[in-house]
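retry 2 of 3: previous attempt timed out while embedding pyridoxal-5'-phosphate. Reduced batch size to 1 and resubmitted. Inputs unchanged:
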Amino acid sequence: MVHDEFIYEDCIAYFSMEIGLQNEIHTYSGGLGILAGDMLRSAAELELPLVGITLVSRAGYLYQEIGDQGQQMEHEDYWKPEDWSQSLEAKIAVTIESRKVWVKGWLYLMEGLFENRKLPVILLDTDLDDNNDEDRKITHYLYGGDNTYRLKQEIVLGIGGVRMLRALGFNVRKYHLNEGHSALLTLELLRDHIYPEDEIKWEKMRYDIPAVRDLCVFTAHTPEKAGQDEFSYELFQKTLGDFIDMEILKSLAGEDSVNMTQLALNLSEYVNGVAKSHAETSRELYPGYHIRSVTNGVHPCTWTHESFAELYDKYMKGWRHEPELLVRADQIPDEAIWEAHMDSKKELISIVKKMVKVDMDKNIPILGFARRMTSYKRADIIFSDIDRLKSIADEWPFQLVFAGKAHPKDDEGKGIIKTIHNYIDDLSSDIRIAYLPNYNMDMALSIVSGVDIWLNTPLPPREASGTSGMKAAFNGVPNLSILDGWWIEGCIEGVTGWAIGDEDSDPDNDYESLYRKLEQTVLPMYHNDRASWISVMKGIISKNAPFFNSHRMMRRYGIEAYLF
Ligand SMILES: *Cc1c(COP(=O)(O)O)cnc(C)c1O
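retry 2 succeeded.
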């Protein structure tokens, strides 16, 4: 069968609600999915035996249009699994609301650097004739619907995923849970690890919890309790029946409700946060658990513009497999760095012109801000004091490029998109501003490589890691960012970029610090001191890219989380 070549050796199963496989496959919404994709891309290149599991999300996350008033309009964002993957023959069932719901799978093959080995990713699909109309849609909408819909999706992902792997003959050594969405897989494993009848001394000891813990690795991504998946016991029982002993479930997932993070924490031997500061925050949130940190990274080739990739091939051959070699980037001639940057900048300028009819000037610095539009990311912070902003732009001209989708139910996020659009009009004679609709992977590469400065202004400690700034690093684009997530580890002031405020500053004053840094340091250097500017470009490549990449991240998971 099509997947036969993958089942002869033990493997690690990587579960994620979203995975950014490629631009045409709409199974991702933001950083979490892109990270999952980068993780698997690195595993493919390093020839590690991983298998990815996610939902097929036929209707995608959302296709974004933006109206004249800056209002986001959402459309379904269908893609065709048959165009990009192969149908698998196995069919399994999960029980939902006492009905059998049938699940099939699609096999997507991820290519590594070397042609001989591909990495399998399985996309779970309930859109089958065997199911009723409602159940057919369970795997349709990424992060769509209500809590009941979400629980059904998590049943298909967690419980269905384990069953599918078994049906296909995969021999799984470890289950890696990327965020709590797939935590129900631990319950399916518990049901499989039951002590023999004569060894059971009392009912609670029925399940071999240590054996399941040994099998599971959990990576947490959310630095606060709100925003984690939680289901009432009433809903849980209604949907899953007596899938597992309730008393045991309560001891593992919480007395008052089924908390997926808590369930994953209790049933995973190896637990980690995604940056050093995020691991610290998580230890405070969950005292008593041993929470390690593996700082995120991005996939080198995927996030390096051609113009820079060619340069790296010339000066640091082998960087694709060993991005550590990029430490030598400070040896590349200044003119070559600048030329590569201008190539990607001109490309972005033409995309901006084509998409939103704004003319950007290649000689004026562009600040970029693109990510999910949600209130804690504070995309509109740069508009906090318009007179001040105008006076800065008057002395030191700059331009702005924005992009990002808001979740359909996130009115604050949509409000931010509107606010930015209002300023595009109000400031049209002072600052050129563009907002590109329908942010996706391809656009992300164009923006992170085509701007001059990468801006990030999250409200600490809510940016668990952030990865788009790392993508900028691979393209020699300095970050100007709040000290949160990865930037606490990546920022060397004036060498790799600049900090906005310091780790103890009052968030209400962040816009002040941003203005000050722009006016006194960043923009004057860009306009008056090209040599220093290029040395910061080389600084972020040579000091950040060798570390903040997914090869290093994957090698760490391989040795520290999977091996023992
Ligand atoms: C990298 C990426 C993100 C993550 O951006 P952050 O700034 O880390 O939140 C989100 N969406 C897309 C399409 C990306 O490529």
